[in-house]
Prior knowledge:
With 160 residues, the chain is mainly alpha-helical. The protein has one domain. The protein is built from seven helices and no strands. The radius of gyration is 19 Å and the shape is elongated.
Amino acid sequence: MASKPDPSSSAPYLLGRALLPLRAFLGFTFCFAGLQKLANPRFFDAADPASIQSQLAGAARRSPVHALISPLAHVAVPLGVLIAFGELAVGVGTLLGLKARLAAAGGLALSVMLFLTVSFHSAPYYTGADIVFRVRLDAAAAGRLRLGPVAGRGHRGLGG
């Protein structure tokens, strides 16, 4: 009598395939955010209202962690470059499945930081995009969702 294939053995592979659109969305979004900052000279121009300096000044007035933000004003440009390269690293790591848990933890840290500094006063709360990224990346960083090259089939995904 032939045995039936165990459906649970293909579950990680199917989950990995099902999560590819999410992985692509997060990866491209983080890459785009980082590249957009690096390519926009206005982002580093203190006189521009869209600059990192202006954004830090606004966050220092409105954020629940304003005491942590105020001292960063004098290092705004290096901080902006660090954020941009961080977003780029998270995006590339997510897209390629490289150091995926580290990429998820970095994305989680960036999302929480952006939520507390930029999106915190969004009303209603679910209109602030950073909260959505935080929830998704929280599960990935904890290893509950696998998003590696193709989760299953011998590959450890985002959870491993």
